[in-house]
Write a structure and sequence with these properties.
alpha/beta; 6-stranded mixed beta sheet; Purple Acid Phosphatase, chain A, domain 2; globular; 14 strands
Length: about 350
């Protein structure tokens, strides 16, 4: 009994120290001027359609109100001081049902118009690929890899993965988690054929179903995808450069890559390969994704903060829409979350001096 009492006492003291530290960090953040402020959101999935439900009929989807919420979020960011420099849009900007109604182009234009003058960097998700093939997406503003500051001599010019450097101390890397996918590619393509091999792990006739599958095998569904060996090589080479230049790195993609931050059926097919590359480098501080509409977060064994941003689409109209406002300081990246998204203080791997 005395030993148990001692352990409980030590635990309470430890928790008290943690709380004091977090309070101290919050005070420091509050009193400092950030070096830069930017923002992120995900899964708007707008459509000029009546409300509906998700595939499992467990979550209501507010298609029209998604645009109302997007406008509300953008207005909040417009009125912030210091100013928000750019936005990260993490995929599924419009819903797949737009294709059925023949309004894919008009719906996309409406959502893009809301961003207005904000510099916005996009990644593509499964719903973009339900509406357009990849060749068509390259001709839209969603093809951020075509921007001058995002071009890389390492990456192929017709790929959707890219990186940019908004600050000398911070690099954003966008990966394409649907480079290997059954959606978006012609059946004759190598990428489609490779995707079909992944989907052999799905025992169901309907490859969009995860029924009768257990553990992380549930990720092998048609609505997910994977990263090619070419892209993995590009990512590894780029992170090597970031290590040498002491650049802190945030990686973004539509699909989550760690089981602590999302339901397993939402994970990238070859997430373990991506993690193995990240773990060989010191520079990565966070991975941010969408796709899992309820969101989630976790810190892996290499102290990388994984954050899955909840969907605007499934947020009830009487709530505040989920959004992330990120402030870069000398030694931390502070994230202000809203609604289902928490606040985070992420320690920089390379403090700014």
């Amino acid at each position: 009994m005395p030993k148990l009492y001692t352990r409980i006492l030590k635990l309470l003291v430890y928790r008290s120290k943690i709380k004091r530290y977090l309070k101290k960090m919050a005070t420091i953040v509050k009193n400092q001027e950030p070096l830069m402020v930017f923002a992120a959101l995900s899964d708007i999935q707008y459509g000029d359609m009546d409300d509906g439900y998700n595939f499992k009929k467990t979550g209501k989807r507010y298609y029209r109100n998604a645009l109302v919420f997007q406008k509300q979020v953008i207005e909040q960011w417009k009125n912030m001081t210091p100013e928000v420099k750019f936005i990260l849009q993490l995929g599924d900007i419009i819903d797949g049902f737009n294709k059925r109604h023949g309004i894919s182009e008009s719906s996309l234009q409406k959502t893009l118009d809301v961003f207005g003058d904000f510099k916005t960097y996009h990644v593509i998700g499964n719903h973009e690929l339900y509406n357009f093939d990849r060749a068509a997406l390259m001709k839209t503003p969603l093809f951020s890899a075509g921007l001058p500051e995002c071009k890389s001599s390492i990456a192929s010019t017709n790929q959707f993965y890219y990186s940019f450097l908004p600050d000398a101390s911070l690099r954003i890397i966008a990966i394409d988690t649907y480079e290997i996918a059954e959606i978006g590619w012609p059946e004759s393509s190598t990428n489609y054929q490779e995707a079909m091999k992944y989907l052999e792990n799905n025992i169901n006739e309907d490859k969009n179903s995860c029924a009768n599958m257990t553990g992380t095998d549930r990720r092998f569904a048609r609505f997910n995808g994977g990263v090619s060996s070419t892209q993995l090589k590009w990512l590894n080479q780029l992170l090597e450069e970031c290590d040498k230049k002491k650049e802190n790195v945030i990686i973004i993609g539509h699909l989550p890559i760690h089981p602590s931050a999302a339901a397993v059926e939402c994970l990238c097919w070859n997430y373990e390969e991506i993690l193995s590359i990240l773990y060989n480098h010191d520079c990565v501080i966070s991975y941010m994704a969408g796709h899992d509409h309820v969101g989630g977060s976790g810190i892996d064994e290499h102290h990388i903060q994984h954050i899955t941003i909840p969907a605007i689409l499934e947020t009830p109209p009487d709530r505040d829409p989920p959004m992330a406002t990120l402030s870069l300081y000398n030694d931390i990246l502070h994230i202000d979350g809203q609604y289902l998204l928490d606040n985070y203080d992420i320690k920089l791997k390379f403090p700014i001096v």
